Amino acid sequence: MKKQFFEFLKKCFLAGLFFALLSMNSAIGQETISGTVTDNLGPVVGANVLVKGSTNGSQTDFDGNFSIQASPNDVLVISYIGYASQSIKVGNQKTINVVLAEDASLLDEVVVIGYGTSKKSDLTGAVSQVTAKSFENQPLTRVEDALQGRAAGVSVSGSGAPGAGIKVRVRGVNSITGNNDPLVVVDGVFGGDLRTINPNDIASIEVLKDASSLAIYGSRASNGVILVTTKKGAGKPKISFDHFVSISSQARSIETLGSGDFARQKNAGLIANGADPAYTEQQISALDANPINYEDQLFQTGIGTNTQLAVSGGKDNLRYFVSGNYVNQTGTVIGNEYERFSLRSNINLDVTEKLSVGVNLYGSRESEVNNPDDFNRFKGSSILKTLTWDPTLPVQDSDGNFITSSNFANNGFNPIGTLLRSNRDRAADRLNTTINVGYKFTDHFKYSLVVGASTINQNIESFIRDDNPSDANPNHTRVAYTNFRNTSHQVSNILNYNNSFNKHNLDVTGVYEFQGDRNTFNGYDTFAIATGSIYLADNEDQSRENFTNDGNQNAIQSYLGRVQYNYNNSLYLTGSMRIDESSRFAKGNRTGYFPSGAIAYSFNNMPFIENGKTLSSLKFRAGWGQVGNQNINSTARFSLTNDAGNYPFDGSTLVSGSTLIQVGNPNLTWETTSQTNIGVDMGFFSGRLNASVDYFSKTTEDLLLRTIIPGTSFAKFENAGVVENQGIDLTLSGTIVQNDNFTWDSSFNLSHVKNEVTELVNDVDQILGNIRPVDGTENSINVIELGQPLGQFYGLTFLGTWKSTDDLPDGIQAGDAKYLTDDEGNSVFSTIGNGLPTLTWGFNNTFNYKNLSLNVFINAAHNFDVYNQVAAAINGGAGDFRDDLSPLSVNKWTPQNETELPRRGSLNVLNSSRYVEDGSFVRLSNLKLGYTFDDVIKNVESLQIYVSGQNLVLLTDYSGYDPEVSSTPVNQDLNNTDAGAGIDIGAYPNPRTFTLGLKLQF
């Protein structure tokens, strides 16, 4: 019965809402007055335009436009929180354009809330806003850097490679094997990629965090929503030019044995085992005199340039913002480069007083060369392999040939030679088009159409060579070409009714939306001898050739209704219902219903607030809602086979045929997250200081969990498992000091999140992960465990060394590594750490003294571990890592010095708590000093020159390069790096960067 009701509601929703809203309006019969409200930066969105002495009012739209019915004798009052109000008599004017001046004592931002805007003071949900003003003092090439540490409840981490992907998480992680990335919406269109957006184009970023805010996006919103609004032009023409040059370098080093010391330690180990030494004293002396440092060979000084040119303005009914951006960076690892061209054009036109049209175009071309994270990382990344390579051998011999193998240390190929003789080029073209059409039936009732289309075309050409060029065996020369293409489209129809009746304020929104996308993938690779061109191969052995063709397409249809009501700007109510139908599920399971409700009460009209000198605003908020997740492959419900499979039915002879690789599940349906949020907003000293505190609790059920059927290798998706997240978000911001010559603006945010897996599939207690230690063994080093958070490390518990006075078990010698065992003496594998931070914070300060400005930004994360597989490999003695390169090896256990470092020859187990370290850190992320010149050059409105530094100071006990970055897990086919967070197999470190730049505005 409930389902039938919702189906009926879905079919009748738009028609019923349309006629209901029309019936609430009546024509006033007065003349229409239109105009634009701007400030010194552009359009003011959500400004109130009211006929003085009446309840007849209107609000400005996204472009700052308004229209209202008024007579010549009326006076229009234009107001916006944070600006001084203006009163203008209508008279004979049909068009009134207003420029508002900021009033810092009343500042209250307008925030984007999805399918509309709201004053921050009117919010009932939890929304974090990051405006361009908050990150304009930090030279940025990536949007994620603008979010990092500036929004409570939002964590950002990733690789230090230029152009590499960044992981963003909102209020913890929900899914075990699914995707935990938040939805990115750019100017109302889904599917944006933060990595490719030019930060200088952004006007504001809003992060929707609680379910009452997220439910409006339904199926896409379970991991949070990031709304990006790009800049629009208004007022007199302006030309802005921004250029900076950066120099980046390796911020920290990992100490390993020098060439001579390694030779001495190797000799000592050989002699201890009764063998002859490998190096003579003369050779060791030569190595001391001319040491070989492979870390120095790997890292380089990175140079980067960023150039931005933007033109904006508006006159009469036309407004424009056009920008071009060019980024060129060399990474701090040899051979690594990144380049991006981008162009944006935002044009807005008022065709008539009622009809407006906007067209946004964005195109980019990015090219990435030799990101070491994309090379073979089966036994560690290129960085890890470099740190464990034989330091007694040069990269090339006297004839210029690369030395590719060694009898000692790392048993793989020379990693420097591999990087220098390989080329992996990724090129991606992106084109996004958005058309916005708005039509005002009346001053209170309007229709908006958003049509978006995008295409992404990415090619990867790679030639990765590990063998010596003189070798005849081509088995380790891999030639590959892949092409990925994505096309998507979106159509959103939005009806909105907004009106005030005395003290009652009503805002009703209805949406019908459709989105579809199609992906195709083609690839070819071979182990072959290159001929003619670096990307062509002559391979007579076709068994080494692989061809891949794949693709999928998805569609989703949505209906939405939202009602926002407030009484006398005191009592606020919000309710919404979204209905989504996804093609990823079978018929009968495609429809998801996502309701939400929120309530807030503001005490600002109370005498103790109005007359108070300290507390200037107070509001309590509470909300509940549900959102969904359908982020699985479109083939998840089908059984899949490999038609090129082979199977030995008689135990020896392979027979060709089809083999099962995935068991279908037609009963799959929505993963659902329910969230409760309770918050309080406070203002002090007439808005000089503002604070927000939110408590949230969210539960994700019916997880889209990828499992392996017991006793087989067959995968299957199921709706099973429960994950819970609870936490607190805190935001403080204000103007600490403000006088004629000096201001100090400061903001602080903090988030605490507790994550727990409360239910798994088939009543099991744990699911072993698929990440392996870098020694190549099959032991998992991550685990998903009931009652514990995601991101658990798995291994042995290291207890030091066995001493000569201990009762030694059979097969154990004094000085061997000692691990926790059970009552029967078997080693115990268990959880030994966790890679998800529970506490993060950021502290941003901007000081201005006359024309001098200083920005100091600090961010931090606490209460998490890093599984340091780099340190494990440096200690050698396992798999390919045959020898110890750790400087600590000089203090190994000996009968004369019984330390806690195992003796030479003792088995080094890489997956043990010996290599789990505290990852907590505090980082000085940005320090910028700038000076703005006045009236220096004719027709130049402003000129600023600045110097800055990023990642200048890192306070941490972690012994690796950087605790904030984690390597992308090897063999990660679960599409979820959170189940293996904090595992370092040689991550590309964040560089230390110094920047010199200038900003010009004409």
Automatic annotation (TrEMBL):
Keywords: Cell outer membrane, Membrane, Signal, TonB box, Transmembrane, Transmembrane beta strand, Transport
Residue ranges of every copy of the TonB-dependent receptor plug domain listed in the record: 120-225
TonB-dependent receptor-like beta-barrel domain boundaries: 397-952
Membrane topology: Multi-pass membrane protein
Extent of the signal sequence: 1-29
Gene Ontology CC annotations of this record: cell outer membrane
Stated family: Belongs to the TonB-dependent receptor family.
Phylogenetic placement of the source organism: Bacteria, Pseudomonadati, Bacteroidota, Flavobacteriia, Flavobacteriales
Cellular compartments annotated: Cell outer membrane
Chief subcellular location: membrane
Name used for this protein in its record: TonB-linked outer membrane protein, SusC/RagA family
Pfam family, any one: Plug
Stretches assigned to coiled coil: none
Source organism superkingdom: Bacteria
